[in-house]
């Protein structure tokens, strides 16, 4: 469900924690999404120090994912096995 359209928009700079789903993550915090860049564009406007959590199943944590210069790394990885800080 989406929030009602009449709610005020919260700028990314006012958010302290982001949960970011992905197809795959690596232990360095690299994220492979669906290729549209929505999360990267949003996170580029986040306040310094805002925490980013990549959310996936443990089989989605792989040795490495391709990263471009505009890709934002996650601070933490969350799977059904637990939470770990990205290196």
Characterization of this structure:
The strands form two sheets. This protein has a four-stranded mixed sheet with strand order 1-4-6-7, with no helix packed on it. The protein contains one helix and seven strands; from the N terminus they run E-E-E-H-E-E-E-E. The chain has 87 residues and is mainly beta. It has one domain: NagB/RpiA/CoA transferase-like (Rossmann fold, 3-Layer(aba) Sandwich), CATH 3.40.50. The protein has one helix at 38-43, and strands at residues 17-21, 24-26, 31-32, 51-55, 61-62, 76-79, 82-85. The longest helix has 6 residues, at 38-43.
In short:
The chain has 1 helix and 7 strands. The chain is mostly beta strands. It has one domain (15-85): 3-Layer(aba) Sandwich (Rossmann fold).
Number of strands: 7
- The CATH architecture would be 3-Layer(aba) Sandwich
Rg for CA atoms: 13 Å
CATH superfamily: NagB/RpiA/CoA transferase-like
Poorly predicted ranges (pLDDT <50, ≥5 residues)? none
C-alpha geometry: globular
| Separate helix tally | 1
CATH C-level class is: Alpha Beta
Strand order within the widest sheet? 1-4-6-7
- Decide which structural class fits the backbone: mainly beta
Give keywords.
4-stranded mixed beta sheet, 1 helix, 3-stranded mixed beta sheet, 87 residues, 7% helix, mainly beta, Rossmann fold, globular, single chain
Topology:
Blueprint: E1 17-21, E2 24-26, E3 31-32, H1 38-43, E4 51-55, E5 61-62, E6 76-79, E7 82-85
Parallel strand pairs: 1-4, 2-5, 4-6
Antiparallel strand pairs: 2-3, 6-7
């Amino acid at each position: 469900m989406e929030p009602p359209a009449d709610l005020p928009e919260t700028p990314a700079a006012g958010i302290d924690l982001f949960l970011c789903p992905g197809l795959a993550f690596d232990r360095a915090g690299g994220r492979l999404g669906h290729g549209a860049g929505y999360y990267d564009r949003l996170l580029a406007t986040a306040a310094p120090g805002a925490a980013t959590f990549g959310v996936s199943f443990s089989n989605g944590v792989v040795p490495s994912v391709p990263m471009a210069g505009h890709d934002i790394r996650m601070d933490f990885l969350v799977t059904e096995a637990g939470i770990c800080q990205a290196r």
